[in-house]
Every structure is written in structure tokens, then in C-alpha cells.
Amino acid sequence: MPSSARTADLLHAAKEARNFIAHQGAGAGYVSDLTRDSILTHASRLRTAVADLARGDNIVSTWCHGTEEPREPAPQHLIDAYPKLIDAWVFGTFGSLLDPAPTRSS
Question: Which of 30, 28, 25 is nearest to 39 (CA)?
Fold first, then answer.
């Protein structure tokens, strides 16, 4: 688990990411103005937001696991794999057209 300050930063980034996804995620602009580059730029911003949200969800899920299963260690292999699994689930093969998925440590 990251330090308290790092956790707070990750959770703040997750909240901002959630807001971006909810309010701007599908809004890449007017269809008549879209270009390949503008779509890819917007999708890259969306990918960063999804990664930030996944990191925040991972923290909260780890806390929930600790509350619900206090005697069981958190499944570290799932915690470690979660951001990449979410990226693959959301972006699939489209992700290969974008910048590499953000990999900030959590």
C-alpha cells in the first residue's frame, strides 16, 4: 500500500478521472470536426483517466477486502494485474493505436 500522501494523491486523481469520464469521456467534439489525430488524442486522455480510476478503485477494493476478510491477505497478484486488465477490457485492440497505458506505481 502506498504512503498516506501518495494514497491521497491517487484517490484525488481517481476522483478527477471519474469526473472526466462521466462528463467529457464520450465528448470528443463535433463529428464534422473530428480527425484521426483528434480522436486519438481524446482517446489517450480517456485512457489516462481510466488508468487513474483503476488505481483508485484498486486502493478502495483493497481496503474493502481488508474489512470483509480481515484474516486473509489481499490477493496481491490481482492487485498488481488490475490496471492492465482494466486497460485491456476498456480499450482492447484499440489500445495499440494509443500511447502506452500509463503505469504510475500505486
Answer: 28
C-alpha cell belonging to residue 73: 491477505
Task: Give per-residue pLDDT as tens, 45-102.
Answer: 999 999 999 999 999 999 999 999 889 988 899 999 999 999 999 988 877 777 666 7
Within 8 A by CB and 6+ apart from 77, the residues are none
**Is residue 96 left, alpha or beta, with left meaning phi > 0 and alpha meaning psi from -120 to 50?**
alpha
Q: What is the residue-wise DSSP string for the chain?
A: ---HHHHHHHHHHHHHHHHHHHHHTT----GGG--HHHHHHHHHHHHHHHHHHHHHHHHHHHHHHHHH-TTSPP-HHHHHHHHHHHHHHHHGGGGGGSSPPP----
CA Rg value for the chain? 16
